[in-house]
Design brief:
This protein has about 220 residues and is α/β, with parallel strands linked by helices. The chain has a single domain, classed as 3-Layer(aba) Sandwich (Aminopeptidase). About 40% of the residues lie in helices and about 20% in strands. It is built from six helices and eight strands; from the N terminus they run H-E-E-E-H-E-H-E-E-H-E-E-H-H. A six-stranded mixed beta sheet has the order 4-1-5-8-6-7, with helices on both faces. Strands 2-3 form a two-stranded antiparallel sheet. Helix 2 packs across helix 6. The longest helix is centred in the last third of the chain and has 19 residues.
Length: about 220
Amino acid sequence: MKNSIAILGLALLIALPVSAATPLTGKIIALDAGHGNGETGAVGVCNGVEVIEADVNLAVRAELKSLIVSGEGAVHEVEQLSSRHDRVADAENAGSDVLVSIHHNGSTNTSADYTQSFVTQKNDKILAGYIHPAIVSALDLQDKGIKNDGYGMTVYGSLPGVLTESYFITNTEAACDFLDYQNGATNTRVQKEAQAMYDGLVAYFSANTGGSGNGKGRNR
């Protein structure tokens, strides 16, 4: 009888699902929603309705956070401080492994639309090399590449980071697409962008042992 109980217990133990680690397990991804804190960023218009970049940035961050958490990763939502330097410090102080600063471009030309990303350090370019192409593929817009010019968030600190300008929110089609998203539409730019960023992060952590969170791998 005892042997039968032991065998049954072992069978149940083997049958229980084991939570497998993912490339994001144990990683902390800092997500910065650009602008905010009274700063609108670029402003688009769809049929007379204004679309604020800061709102789009927050929407993408929320979608991306949900994907990361589902993928066993942790998210640090960077506080929308007035200083970009302080935002980076906030991400670093949280022990983040990487930083993604989410932005959307603006122009007086309402037909302008393309994808571009910005980096400063060598380790930024490695991270961007996974995230930027994924965004380009998902949105199918003109690829203006990864620009290395010390722009924005990545100029501060040594945390691997990328500042994305996935598309122009001042583009009329893009502005209307965001309103559709707010009204419950699926497969919009917000969702495509978030999924692309997630896929890029998974690919990055699959190929690299782990960013620079908690002081690991820092490289200027």
